[in-house]
Structures are given as structure tokens and as C-alpha cells.
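Researcher: Go.
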Amino acid sequence: MNAVPTARTLLGHALLVDGLASGATGALSLFGANPLGELLNLPPALLRGAGAGLLPFAALLVVLALRPLAPRGLVWGIVALNVLWTVDSFALLASGWVQPNVWGQAFVAFQALAVAVFAGLEMLGLKQARLVAA
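Model: Structure:
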């Protein structure tokens, strides 16, 4: 198995913080969809769907972060999903499909940028793991 170390590494820390942030955002979006939707002028169904998808993703990230090793391919898949989330978030704002107010635009943009940072840190952690292995 082609695995990378996660215990006490940049990769492990990035996965853990990504998982905790994804879990918090997912719980807020899923369980607070109606008031959050009113505040941000975003459809509650969109928020619920995003939240429902984030919770299992967050759990996977935390489990991987707490293990000593993680499959390299799975971590690359997580990076790809984070990049896709970032691109889709900005595409959502540009599409006109939703009409968030300024707070909604800031919410979507901020979480997209945070996810992009996590993707970058996880990629850096993968590179660091490759250098350590060599």
C-alpha cells in the first residue's frame, strides 16, 4: 500500500483542521439551514444538501488525520474534492443560479478560499511526505 504518514505531520494537521472546519460548516448548514438561508439569502435546500455532504467528508478527514498512515491516493482524492468545491463555489456565485446578499456572497467566498488553503496545505503535506520517504 502506498501510504503517507499523518501522525504529527503537516498533512495530518491539515487533514484534522480541514475535517473540523468541514464538520462545523456542515453541521451549521444542515441544522441551521432555515435561519442561515434567511440571513444569507441562500436556498435552505442548497445549504442542507451541502451540509449533509460535508458531515461524512469531515468524519473521513478526522479519521485519516488520527491514523498513523493514510493511503496516498485517497489523500489526492481529498485534495481534488477540495479544489472542485472551491471552483464550484465561485461558479455558483457567478452563475446567477442563486442571488445571495452581500453576507451570502462573503460566506460562500470565504469558505471557498478556506477550502483552497486546505487543498494547498494538503498538497504541501503530500510533497513533504514524499521528500521524507526519499
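Model: The beta strands are 3-5, 69-71.
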